[in-house]
Amino acid sequence: MSKNLKCLKFLAKKRWLTATILSIGSCLGAIATTLPPSIAGVPGIIGQDDRFTPTYEWLTHSPLRAVGRLAIQTADGQFGNCTFTVVGRNIGLTNSHCILGGEKGSPPMQIKAAVAVEHGNRALAVANVDTYWIGRDTPPEDVIKDGPSDWAIVRFTSNLGDLTDWLGNAEWNPNDINSAGQSVLGLTAGYVGYPVDWPTDAAFQPEDVRNHTPAMQYGCTIQGVKSGVLLHDCDTPPGTSGSSLFTAVSETDLRTIGLNFGYYQVQDSYINLAVPLERFMPAVLKLRETGAADGTVVPRP
User: pTM for this one?
Assistant: First the structure.
């Protein structure tokens, strides 16, 4: 059995984690100290580095072909990248801090999207981004306070979703924002993303291009909820901002359960953070309904 298939059959690597779901009332510092220090010494890595590179052939023939890389040029001329997931015919989900990452939160000059990128020289499809909707108007500053609104939806200049389809989503309660994240507590999680450090020297293969090669992990967990933010232990260094966390019902039925956006550090341990479904799914549904038409006003729960 291939490593790719094993990850979706729940044959996850053994982790050094407590078996009990952590109390919602726990402070982040207390949670982080229950987790192992990062052996890799990289922000967002918990314990050992459990990422691997999915094969291009498998990636482009699995539901995760809907995951891609955003290349963003900010108004001050700098370049950055984040991960995104196609969530409709012509829309993708990422973080607001990816869009508002320029000087003083200025709008980006241009954004280019590519799904299933590999080696920096091939991708399943590419498109430009011509507009976006964001969960907040200013760049997030407080990792917890501003975390629930750290989502954004971009519109592509072509219907990438007709080629990639998109992941389903776990159940969520649209009528009780105070319970955001509760429905996915304890679920096994995974992601595909484009970390800036990947592949590491140990994982590097011929033709790999760092920051243009997908990293994958499955077998991490939604550990808790704090102040409306999901706490998880997936290995998500910088560059994986905008990665959808998913759970696997089967190898072909993957459900989004959150949106990775950052990490919290205590000494040499980390707890990683995600936006719950309740915050961004109302906007996704509205944009699917209108076809992401100009002037669409989206909910910001």
Answer: 0.89
